[in-house]
Design brief:
The protein has two domains: 103 residues, Urease, subunit C, domain 1, CATH 2.30.40; 307 residues, TIM Barrel. The longest helix is centred in the middle third of the chain and has 15 residues. By secondary structure, the chain is an alpha/beta fold. The chain is globular. The relative contact order is 0.17.
Length: 445
């Protein structure tokens, strides 16, 4: 008999709308959350039952910053493989960046991603459109058409919009339809290096990217947007100065949000000592002072949400010399335990606060009102987490097509037990590397 109802029992609910964790059941019917409470089996006797075994039950994680590489760079990642990595990491919604080949800068490209996702993805995939044509920073792309086609926001990620005049026009334009500008903040005349500008870079003989490159573009954009008040989001924040700029802007009532990635909370520029390109990313790894400032920004609300900046690259690309290898590392499958290590274990955030910054907060930034919550009628997207389970990160077992992570061999705590999208179990699946199956209810009783 086909199951269209799923009852999750014996779990501790981490609901962003509640003040504390509670042991409650969740009933999903026809892909939507229909009830949260106790004794729900009596209300839906035909529902399949999934025992959470005392684990945490949270809304499906949401990542508003991933790179899926399709179209044009399918040797690194595809929508199918990226979504498989996503559900293995507990993510049920991911927003993909437009720095593909060609760039996602037209409504037709937006429609391609959505169509391909509907055909192959295990989770919900929402595309960002480029701010400028070809991501060249010269002329605005057709923002309204992409918005109407389903773009969740706009970014030239991989490079910042260098022209103040172009950025001003972009902010003014998206304000008309309440669109989102998500900016890679890097002043281009100060970029071009391979790592953080520091004594380590000097010792290694590598060109540096100074912290002020990030801070200058943030300061400029905040000034441009002060009167426009468009929705403006700072991607992968990495410096103490950037945190302070955003903190002050929020105190002044500006419409600004920000994200941070796991590596900028756990690693520093000294990790690059051995020229290991797995530690090369953009923004680069910064100082311990910057790491601490980002953690403080999360605690006080300056930084709104947690993202991954999942950036897969082929093995041979990362095996080049440090200054020639591409920026970026994997993130989807390892983000949750790394955030637990960086934020929950030291006591910076509670479990509930962590989940809020990985669900409700990114949903709010992206304007996704039907997820990141257990509200009745919201999407039946859920992750079940065994918070105390220890495991070792093994890149060779990744569902991604790429293996570029600096965290291989690291023992971590906290593991995804099940990922559920629209009431269907999409993780776990039989083996890593297996053909990607459509969601099923396999494994429930």
């Amino acid at each position: 008999m086909k199951n269209d109802a799923l009852l999750i029992t014996n779990g501790v609910l981490l609901d962003p709308q509640r003040q504390k964790p509670e042991r409650l059941e969740v009933l999903i019917v026809d892909g939507l959350i229909r009830a949260v409470g106790t004794g729900l089996k009596a209300t839906a006797p035909q529902a399949a039952v999934l025992d959470a075994k005392g684990g945490y039950v949270a809304p499906g994680l949401i990542d508003i910053h991933v790179h899926l590489r399709e179209p044009g760079q399918e040797h690194k990642e595809t929508i199918a493989s990226g979504s498989a990595a996503a559900v293995a990491g507990g993510f049920t919604t991911i927003c993909c960046m437009p720095n593909t080949t060609p760039a996602i800068d037209t409504d037709a490209q937006i429609e391609f991603v959505l169509t391909q996702a509907a055909r192959t993805a295990l989770c919900r995939v929402l595309p960002f459109g480029a701010i400028t044509k070809g991501r060249e920073g010269k002329e605005l792309a057709e923002l309204q058409l992409m918005h109407d086609a389903g773009a969740v926001g706009f970014s030239d990620d991989g490079c910042g919009v260098a022209s103040a005049a172009v950025m001003l026009k972009a902010l003014q334009y998206v304000k008309m339809f309440d669109g989102l500008i998500s900016q890679h903040c890097e002043e281009p005349t100060l970029s071009g290096g391979a790592m953080h500008a520091s004594l380590t870079a000097m010792r290694l003989g590598l060109g540096g990217i100074p912290a002020v490159a990030e801070e200058l573009m943030i300061a400029r954009d905040l000034q441009l947007n002060a009167r426009i008040k468009a929705r403006y989001h700072v991607q992968h924040i990495s410096t103490a100065g950037a945190c302070e700029l955003i903190r002050r802007a929020k105190q002044q009532g500006q419409n600004v949000t920000a994200e941070v990635a796991p590596h900028h909370l756990l690693l520093t520029d000294t990790c690059c000592d051995n020229y290991d390109t797995h530690f090369k990313m953009n923004p680069p790894l910064r100082s311990q002072q910057d790491v601490q400032a980002c953690i403080e920004g999360l605690v006080d609300g300056t930084i709104d949400c947690l993202a991954t900046d999942h950036a897969p690259h082929a093995r041979e690309e990362k095996e080049l010399e440090f200054d020639r290898a591409p920026f970026g590392i994997l993130g989807l499958e390892t983000a949750l335990p790394l955030y637990i290590e960086a934020l929950v274990k030291p006591g910076h955030l509670s479990w509930l606060e962590l989940i809020r910054k990985m669900t409700a907060q990114p949903a709010g930034i992206a304007g996704l009102k039907d997820r990141g919550t257990f509200a009745i009628g919201s999407l039946g997207d859920i992750v079940i987490i065994q918070g105390d389970e220890k495991w070792t990160i093994d890149p060779e077992k990744s569902f991604s097509r790429s293996r570029n992570t600096p965290f291989g061999g690291r023992e971590v705590t906290g593991r995804v037990a099940h990922t559920i999208t629209g009431g269907k179990i999409v993780f776990p699946r039989p083996t890593a590397g297996a053909e990607f199956a459509k969601p099923s209810n396999e494994g429930i009783v």
